[in-house]
Amino acid sequence: MISVADVIVGHLRRAGVGTIFGVPGGGSNLDLIDAAGRAGVTFVLTATETGAAVAAIAQAEISGRPGACLTTLGPGVTSVVNGVACAWLDRAPLLVFTDSHPTSTGGVFQHQRLDHRALLAPVTKWSTTLSPANAQSVMRKAVDCAMAPPCGPVHLECPGDVLSAEARGDKPVDRHGVGEGIAREPGNAGRVLFAPAISLLKGARRPLLLVGLGARRSIDAEAIRSLCLKRGVPAMVTYKAKGVVPDGDLHFAGVFTNGTIEQSMVAEADLLLAVGLDPVELIPRPWAYAQTIVHIGPARVDDDHIPFSSQFVSDIPSAMQLAEELLSQSSWDLDAIHEAVVSQRRRLCLPSSRLAAHRVVQIAADAAATQARVTVDAGAHMFPATMLWPVAEPNGMLISNGLSTMGFALPAAIGAALLDHGPHGPAKAGHYQQGQAEAGRDRRNASDDGNGRNRPVVALTGDGGLLMCAGELLTAVRESLHVIVIVFADASLSLIDVKQQQRRLGSSGVSLGAVDWCAVANGLGAAAHRVETEAELSSAMSRALAHHGPTVIEARIDPGTYPETLHTIRG
Description:
By secondary structure, this protein is of the alpha/beta class. Helices cover 40% and strands 16% of the residues.
């Protein structure tokens, strides 16, 4: 007998899913976990359902394949909503399996009964219920739908008596709304589609690329870098596109958020090319630029916020090749661009008599950036982290941007660490630049711990964000992951405090109270260090990098630099 659970797992394996995250209940998800185990798909227990979704999102973003999580019925589904919303607004392909009452009960039981599909409908691309008769076609559509640009979450309801039943056949499923992969060649058809922008590109002397989340595949990064190199074009990247053009590249023009700090540089351009840029990534304030802006990406995006003159729906490599043909050598002074980026960074390095947030980022990056992936939580520490942590590969920095949810960094680090060097080995080459992947393998082979889990992941979080997901420290311990959690500890919701100051309001409702993070970490089995000076932080980083398992570094910082940092970046 081939059960519905076996069918689900078969489709997950074909889609490249190696791990399912979640918190099980007593119904159908037990059948799914059992089928996954038989098929070699790992189930990882997380402390919360949101943590499960975020860990799966991290794997999806790194691998370019769907992530998967499961929940029990009722409270499990309500708890996962924040993680599903994160996938929705951060355009991540996620398959969410939720338990429900058995179909045989006829809907008579009210205990823990909620309309799961209605609850998740606003934050999913598609929602449906699995049955023995439709499992094959539903799973085909679910994977297609999650992966169709723009990617996003799909919800699959699993009644308690369905997943253990025999898959009996296949009813056709309406494929309406399921997009097909976009692949346009830069021939005559491409030129016709690009016609509204051809004269703009031919006439541009100072084009500027604004690279976003839709351009993070390794082949996209290669094509973008090629265009920059051959035509001398600079590129700004959004938070989620960090690493598409490395921070150390001469063509790197900084981070683009629709904030203040980048305005003077953007103002010098005569044409803006939004490559994979999604308006969901930007600060919600009016568009301030008068230059013509053209969108290039795998799917159309909303143009209410950004006044795109035209949108070229294409795969990025083909579009970059066509743009390379149309553009002439730019007149940008790339040395001046580099100096401007250096100047931006200097403006964030404010003096402090105590350990400052920007110094925590710089010292940690000096120790780990060449070998570690980094995850960043929402909060005031996010600003120095995104500006100062150098990234050299797509998805080398993971961050919740569209939703900007707190409690993201730690579970994302868990998902990343399991994928990079979990039981199934490192993520397949091709999602990183080949040379960087080989260098990374060389580093790991030189100091492997026998479990293949030596590439560290650094999670940068505030104490408010870590309080929301502290139970995931136990997940990292249980899985023996090389995760280094750096807590910017100031006992406050600092970003909200800064916003109160900006509005000349009294400080209220933002004080968290002191937390002994070292005691918390030790109690859960993680290594821990408390630091108050730069020297102590350097020592703690060295010890954390040498430790085969999770480490928490409680960095007691001075939050006094945050107001000026926020003003410098956002105005």
